[in-house]
Specification:
Length: 834
């Protein structure tokens, strides 16, 4: 027990999220305890949001609050209220994972102990339980919730029974079935001393259980608005819409009377009705293909359907529409592959059956009440029924509800050969776990709102806040130009599909072998580098589903500063026999190969040293900025300026420049530079899909497939390195800015580490890390000055219970290029720079 006046919660700043089981009375009591033991409790902002930049812990018994995703991105622990009590009881802060409110951590409240279980099985059960949020103790205590045993003869079991501990003594079969399903089922049939699964025939009927996850979510288009869930809530004023702008889409096809009722409820509760998608906070619509849906989704607005809106009104509490499949707008034409499917349901009753019927229809399949030989699938909660026997006789696929749920959640039909879809625990009706599947937001974005002129700004804000929460010593040092010296100059364009533009990034030089410690990790010839915006890199977004010509047409946004700088560089003559970065040779190359092919010959190396012989012809051949402007305008193509989104990145070959890696990280499709040539030569916009970059030589060199990297990038959605701390030595050759740009494009937490940097890793309890310490990376070269930092960095990491990895910058570049987090000891500086 914590001693009064101790600093148990010292340096901790808490925020509370009220809910039905975390009332204001409980919050007041916990707040007093927190303050008593050295902590602080934050108030909400005026708009009701949590001050994420200043808090260290969020106490909530649910993940249904608007800033949950932002808090996890910023690595702010979200814990149940029991965590505070457990910490007080232990006299030290309890582990975080067992107290998470995330329902996907199915064993978050399990304290396991094992009895007479074989070592192999024991290790498997313990490992999987801890991975899913549980804890393990070799000893049985009052905190033990489950003892895994084969009989009641073991001393642990006898002791627990004698002392009447309130714990479940279960067969290992329970864990096995939970692991196979990925869901937590009822322990009842597995309890010793008389487990039902060993004494009752599997064929005996089981009464279907009601799942709490279906409440208010059995239909995407409810026939009526349910009343408040309790008499108390009927008397309370509706507050869930306070300060929110709501848009009711026209595709809801509501009658005027219902629209007027909803409008009255929302405005009376302090909300506003708007007809403009980009102004709303919440959009309510039916389908995923409307203009309002795409625009609101791209802007990061909360989007739900009528069922979701009714749920908010009924419960007077916010809920994430992505957490219930039928709270989110439907695909108008269903899920690909389901159109010709005929699906029947067995062994599900009540709301679960209605829910499955509606889900099957929303997926685009035909639901049949009775089953015939022409049925393609049977969704059943058990493998015992007349329909199940018929399915076996007619060779009809027999699956549980997880198959249809995950197919709908992932927006594509899942293969029925996955074992969890065909697993049926002998004495369990799987209706008890129905409705727990969340929609896959990345898949939704990739398929239904892939980028556009607007892009959610939530993630960058989260990154800034995450950095603000680190120690002041982690502030970025070094140059402020926004690019590293020695970056290989490569002519790359960022093309935005519907407004259409590209940016220029110099000309690429021939690649070199493995870089030395004095070079940037991408092969490059040593050249003078100019600072300025020409070195910065715009971000990108994945492509959308419109036709090729429509993709390129639209309004022309203002030309990027990159082009102006490019023109400026073209006018700059050679000095002292050296060409500046992005200078005349690059300009001539692009002018010759990409703009108009006006010049019929290229300068030789000898001509390169004679500025006067080239200067006059170059002026005549070079199109002026207005001419470039007009050419692009005529085709509806715009070169995006720094920070804007784009759909295509154009490059002559596969490279590891900052611009290439940053845009690849956001899912931009890489096109060959011949696409630009064709555009300017033919004055037409060819289909970009015909010009996807093919570069097998460099793919082999970098050990990847570009197509795979792009696909992964679109799935990662800029989150490849989310939450991974990456430090960079302050004195690293070529500067820190390029590495920062690449790391942050993948949502890593980037910090500079120098001789005067203090500790920026908050120590954690080793007991909190069931799978060992998390890695933390330091990008470094092998100069004597940087070598001095290695030991201090490693000591700092170990004090924070993290695994230090001092690596060459090639590790970051390879990971981002492949869009897959991996590690090989060859990247350790002690191995890399040998």
């Amino acid at each position: 027990m914590a001693d009064e006046g101790s600093s148990l919660f010292g340096l901790c700043n808490f925020a509370f999220v009220p809910s039905n089981d975390l009332t204001s009375t409980v919050i007041d009591e916990l707040s007093q305890s927190i303050v008593k033991y050295g902590g602080q409790v934050c108030s909400r902002k005026r708009d009701g949001s949590l001050p994420l930049a200043t808090i260290t812990h969020i106490v909530s018994n649910t993940i249904e609050f608007p800033q949950y995703d932002a808090s996890t991105t910023m690595m702010i622990p979200v814990v149940k209220s029991k965590w505070v009590s457990a910490s007080l009881a232990k006299g030290k802060q309890a582990q975080i994972r067992p107290y998470t409110p995330d329902p996907r951590m199915i064993f978050s409240d399990v304290m396991l102990s094992c009895a007479d279980i074989p070592d192999t099985d024991k290790d498997t059960i313990i490992g999987a339980t801890m991975a899913m949020g549980g804890m393990y103790s070799d000893h049985v205590t009052k905190l033990t919730t489950h003892i895994c045993a084969l009989s009641t003869d073991h001393p642990k079991v006898r002791m627990a029974m004698e002392k009447k501990h309130k714990c479940n003594i279960v067969l290992p079969h329970w864990f096995d079935d939970c692991f196979k399903l990925g869901k937590r089922i009822d322990e009842g049939p597995y309890l010793l001393p008389d487990p039902e699964i060993l004494r009752v025939s599997p064929g005996r009927a089981i009464e279907p259980q009601q799942s709490p996850y279906l409440e208010g979510a059995i239909s995407a288009r409810p026939d009526y608005m349910p009343p408040p869930s309790s008499s108390e809530e009927r008397e309370l004023q509706l507050t869930v819409f306070d300060g929110k702008k709501i848009m009711l889409s026209k595709d809801l096809e509501m009658r005027d009377r219902l629209r007027n009722i909803l409008t009255g409820l929302i405005t009376k509760a302090g909300g506003q009705i708007t007809e403009i998608a980009h102004e709303c906070d919440w959009l309510v619509c039916r389908y995923r293909d409307t203009k309002e849906y795409v625009q609101a989704s791209q802007l990061g607005k909360t989007v739900g359907n009528m069922s979701w809106l009714f749920y908010l009104i009924q419960h007077n509490a916010w809920s994430n529409p992505l957490h219930r499949l039928l709270h989110y707008p439907e695909p108008r034409n269903g899920i690909p592959g389901f159109k010709d499917m005929r699906i029947s349901v067995s062994n599900y009753g009540g709301e679960a059956r209605i829910y499955l019927e509606n889900l099957i229809k929303s997926a685009g399949a035909t639901f049949t009440k009775t089953m015939k030989a022409d049925n393609t699938h049977l969704v059943t909660a058990r493998d015992n029924s007349e329909k199940c026997e018929a399915a076996r006789d007619w060779n009809i696929h027999m699956v549980n509800h997880l198959w249809i749920e995950e197919s709908y959640a992932k927006c594509e039909m899942q293969t029925v050969t996955v074992s969890k879809y065909t697993h049926f625990p002998p004495r369990t009706n799987l209706g008890e776990i129905i409705g727990q599947t969340f929609l896959d937001e990345k898949r939704l974005q990739a398929l239904y709102f892939p980028g556009g002129p607007e892009k959610p700004t939530v993630a960058p804000g989260r990154k800034r806040k995450a950095l603000e929460m680190t120690d002041e010593n982690s502030t970025i040092e070094g140059q402020s130009s926004g690019a590293a010296a020695g970056r290989p100059a490569r002519k790359e364009f960022n093309i935005r599909r519907d407004t259409g533009v590209g940016t220029v990034d110099g000309a690429e030089l021939p690649p070199q072998p493995k870089p030395r410690s004095t070079e940037f990790a991408t092969p490059a010839r040593g050249r003078h580098v100019r600072s300025g915006k020409e070195n910065e890199t715009p971000s990108t977004v994945p492509s959308s589903g419109r036709s090729a010509k429509d993709k390129a047409l639209g309004r022309l946004s203002s030309l990027a500063p990159d082009i102006a700088l490019y023109e400026k560089e073209k006018k700059r003559g050679l000095k002292d026999g050296h060409s500046p970065w992005g200078g005349k040779r690059a300009a001539d190359l692009i002018e010759r190969e990409h703009l108009n092919r006006r010049r019929t010959s290229s300068p030789t190396a000898g001509e390169d040293k004679e500025p006067k012989s080239e200067k006059r012809p170059a002026k005549k051949a070079r199109p002026t900025l207005p001419e470039v402007d007009k050419k692009l305008r005529d085709m509806g193509i715009a070169v995006v300026q720094d920070g804007q989104q784009c759909d295509y990145l154009i490059a002559p070959q596969l490279v590891r420049t900052v611009k290439f890696l940053r845009n690849l990280s956001k899912g931009a499709v890489v096109l060959s530079s011949t696409w630009i040539e064709e555009c300017l030569d033919t004055k037409q916009v060819p289909d970009p899909e015909d010009y996807v970059l093919k570069d097998s030589e460099n793919e082999k060199r970098f050990g990847l497939k570009l197509e795979t990297s792009i696909r992964r990038a679109q799935e990662n959605n800029g989150q490849l390195l989310a939450g991974i701390p990456i430090y960079c030595t302050a004195g690293i050759k070529n500067g820190t800015e390029s590495y920062q740009a690449i790391a942050e494009a993948n949502n890593a937490i980037f910090m500079v580490y120098g001789p005067k940097s203090g500790s920026t890793i908050r120590p954690t309890n080793p007991e909190d890390d069931e799978f060992g310490p998390e890695p933390v990376y330091l990008l470094s070269t092998s100069t004597p000055e940087e070598k001095k930092l290695w030991k201090r960095f490693e000591d700092m990491a170990r004090r924070g219970n993290m695994e230090p990895r001092v690596v060459a910058s090639d590790w970051l570049l390879d990971v981002v290029m492949k869009q897959e987090v991996s590690f090989d000891k060859k990247y350790l500086v002690t191995n890399f720079f040998i």
